[in-house]
Write a structure and sequence with these properties.
heterodimer; A: 255 residues; alpha/beta; Defensin A-like; Rossmann fold; 2 domains; 5-stranded parallel β-sheet; 8 helices; 10 strands; B: 524 residues; TIM Barrel; 9-stranded parallel β-sheet; two-stranded antiparallel ribbon
Chain lengths: 255, 524
């Protein structure tokens, strides 16, 4: 049996330091107390409670009068049961910008056109700008920075009729709408109004992908709101781009 | 220029500056013949208009909008506003703004003697604001002399950003105690696109804290306390960028901020702010910074986060040259130019460190008297904090070897989490070790004649000159605008008549008056 097969068949694992089964791990943390003997004992205690036994406090350093930083090596007495590992699968794979660009080029042989806006009276462009502006969000650049995506950002307080008109004009593949204001469920009302207008203006199945985002949406309410995808708080541009490519490859974008 | 360590051709250096001037001048002309809503609001702020209506809309916005609706902004707000002060019964400008907001005042453009009187009064009020900026500058100089300055270069620059000014304050004070010479308060996501400056102390921001006059005041006061405690003046940084650049510059001057992020093209390229709006706002804000003794930090590091740091290295040089031209035209001196650059080359490519060294030395030699701002790796920080720590060490080493003026401390948690207290402590140990071990290495280190580093620096300079020549060859009267419009910088096409804030740009009519610009340009 090769080592690989061995690992595959095994259901129970321990961390590996330098010997099979040694269970050795390394952690570092800070305690809010001055550095002295007691502090090292406190670190030892925490490590034990974390399941490290024996635990060696190999480094303790004062950071100002009130904090101490520790590095601890120790043997973890926990086991990993592979049969109980569950992974939440996203319906689309996360792609790098390079992969997104390559897929668009291969499938569409032209740029993917993305139209973005805040509709209704909502003037909060923070969300749509985080996804579209080059500046981006959470260390990821926005869709503008993707070579194969053409972004048209209409900004705030765009009328639904104007959005539909521009979508046709630009031959948009996807329409991204951001809704931050939720007073009297304005975000739901606006979204329904928007999706209805697109259904009316386009032949069945020909409308651009409709994507809405905002902090107060329920991500599973797509059917109810008549849109293709809903993104919640903390969504990054890379997730949106990966989704668009996924939807495009699976036939939900204009050929 | 002293003897070149890089063997740069002095003619190429001169050529690069000539081209930057040639490309920049038509843009300056545009800036001199246009105003913006934010420039006009800054004039009112300098004259002492503060506060906001119950909806949080500042009175300066209300007043500028009211003047715009009645008579347009092509003459500036000064004449109609102070004419209204002279002809009506208003206790002060704020009361005038309140009445104007409800439609209780009609504005006109005064003529003849009325115009002269309005101009005189406007100038007197605005001058009072500029005098307080002068006093704040003198106060800084006094404090630096009395308390003491940062003990060494580069100045160590650390960021705080909780969203809550009252949380930021203890964090900033702790960062100063841990060794920061400069504290930057990152702004809330999206503030750059607000067309007004929020009011008061704020406790809610997204990934940053709003820049407001009150937040500036609170943080400066807190750092003054810690400066006295530590025996060295701790500097404060914020952002004069986005749609309210001129107003934020004015507030920074009034509240004795010490450095401001202020790039010539960042808002255009990365925030899709209208190019003309940006250049007009920027010239005014830089004039204020010049007067206030504020050091600007430019944003060239941003180019390298989107483009390849090797292939596009020359765009950094071009941007530095343009930033230098615009800054000097606006009255800033060499010591105020924190020109940006960054350590962003992919560490997997061979000789990446030598390339970084070449690029950093090029910036050092091209701008020998500017306190360059050296930015740490972000793009190639992967979450492997151990590798990131090593990369930050090499970043610090380049900083030590090339005499950088301002060093933004790299965090191994970059792109992972907000740094822990311990991450910041480790990052500062990294800086101290490298500075202590190799801080004087530049005395011994001279790249070999005709060697890899010299050749690379020369190549980047050549490419920069070529790019400037391409820009200068664009058709039209303002080639730089055309170049920005057709996507010369990055992938972004930013036409001169598109982008956010364009509706707030107004061409001057004959007789336009801006007392602030007149005072700042006359240096009186």
């Amino acid at each position: 049996m090769t080592a690989q097969q061995d690992a595959k068949d095994k259901r129970i694992l321990r961390p590996y330091g330098d010997t099979t089964g040694d269970g050795m791990v390394q952690v570092s943390f800070t305690l809010p107390m001055p550095h002295d003997k007691r502090a090292e004992g406190a670190a030892q205690q925490l490590a034990n409670k974390m399941g490290l036994d024996p635990a060696m406090v190999v480094h303790a350093k004062p950071m100002g009068p009130d904090f101490t930083f520790f590095v601890v090596y120790g043997r973890a007495n926990h086991l990993v049961d592979l049969s109980k590992v569950t992974v939440v699968e996203r319906e689309y794979p996360l792609l790098t910008a390079k992969e997104v660009n390559a897929d668009i080029k291969r499938v569409l042989r032209r740029k993917l056109v993305v139209l973005g806006a805040c509709i209704g009276t909502d003037a909060h462009t923070v969300g749509i700008d985080a996804i579209l502006n080059v500046k981006g969000f959470a260390g990821e650049k926005g869709l503008e920075n993707y070579r194969e995506i053409k972004v048209v950002n209409l900004g705030a307080q765009v009328l639904v009729a104007e959005l539909v008109g521009r979508a046709r004009e630009e031959k948009a593949d996807a329409v991204l709408v951001s809704q931050v204001v939720t007073q009297r469920d304005a975000h739901l009302k606006n979204t329904r109004e928007m999706s209805a207008a697109f259904r009316e203006a386009y032949p069945a199945g020909r409308a651009p992908l409709l994507v809405v985002g905002g902090p107060r949406f329920d991500e599973s309410a797509t059917t109810e709101l008549g849109v293709d995808r809903i993104f919640g708080r903390g969504t990054t541009p890379g997730e949106v781009a990966s989704y668009l490519v996924h939807a495009m490859v699976h036939g939900r974008a204009r050929p | 220029m002293p003897r070149s360590d890089l063997g740069l051709n002095p003619q190429a250096v001169r050529r690069a500056r000539t081209l930057a001037r040639q490309v920049g001048r038509p843009v300056v002309k545009l800036a001199r013949t246009h105003t913006t809503v934010s420039v006009e609001r800054a004039v009112l702020r300098l004259a002492g208009v503060a506060g906001a209506d119950p909806d949080g809309i500042p009175w300066v916005n209300r007043l500028v909008d009211a003047v715009g609706a009645d008579v347009g902004l092509q003459h500036g707000v000064a004449l109609p506003v102070w004419d209204a002060m002279l002809t009506g019964r208003h206790a002060d400008l704020t009361e005038l703004a309140q009445k104007a907001a409800t439609g209780g005042v009609r504005f006109r453009i005064p003529e003849g003697a009325d115009s002269t009187r309005a101009a005189r009064l406007a100038t007197r009020h605005v001058r009072a604001g500029i005098r307080s900026i002068d006093r704040r500058r003198a106060e800084r100089e006094r404090m630096v002399n009395k308390i003491g300055d940062a003990p060494r270069k580069p100045w160590i620059y650390l960021i705080v950003a909780t969203g809550d000014i009252h949380e930021d304050i203890p964090q900033a004070q702790n960062a100063a105690r841990e060794g920061a010479d400069v504290i930057a308060v990152i702004r809330s996501t999206g503030q750059s696109l607000l067309d007004y400056v929020p009011e008061g102390a704020t406790r809610e921001g997204y990934a940053g804290t709003y820049a407001t006059q009150e937040n500036f005041r609170l943080m400066r006061a807190a750092l003054d306390d810690v400066s006295r405690e530590l025996g060295r003046y701790v500097r404060l940084t914020n952002y004069a960028s986005g749609l309210c650049m001129p107003e934020i510059a004015a507030l920074a001057g009034l509240e004795r901020l010490d450095m401001m992020l202020n790039d010539s093209m960042y808002g255009i390229l990365f925030r899709d702010i209208n190019p003309i709006r940006t250049f007009v706002d920027q010239r005014f804000s830089r004039q204020v910074h010049a007067r206030a003794g504020i050091i600007i930090n430019t944003g060239e590091d941003n180019y390298l986060t989107t483009a390849d740091a090797v292939n596009e290295a020359h765009t950094v040089t071009v941007s530095q040259l343009l930033n230098e031209y615009f800054a000097k035209e606006a009255g800033l001196e060499d010591w105020q130019l924190g020109l940006g650059h960054a350590f962003e080359i992919n560490p997997d490519i061979p000789d990446s460190f030598r390339l970084e060294l070449a690029h950093a030395l090029l910036a050092r030699e091209l701008f020998p008297h500017a306190p360059l701002k050296w930015m740490p790796p972000t793009k190639h920080m992967t979450g492997d904090v151990f590798r990131g720590y090593l990369l930050d060490g090499f970043f610090n080493l380049v900083g030590a070897m090339t005499g950088q003026g301002i060093l933004l401390v790299g965090m191994m948690t970059e792109a992972v989490v907000t740094p822990f207290l311990s991450d910041r402590d480790l990052a500062l140990q990294n800086v101290r070790y490298v500075m202590n071990a190799a801080g004087n290495l530049h005395e011994d280190f001279h790249p070999r004649q005709g060697g890899f580093i010299q050749q690379r620096a020369q190549q980047v300079l050549t490419e920069a000159v070529e790019l400037l020549e391409r820009i200068a060859a664009e058709p039209g009267r303002a080639p730089l605008l055309d170049a920005i419009g057709d996507g010369t910088f990055g992938l972004m096409k930013r036409p001169a008549t598109a982008g956010k804030g364009y509706d707030g740009v107004v061409r001057h009519a004959p007789g336009y008056l801006n007392p602030a610009t007149e005072i700042l340009e006359a240096g009186t």
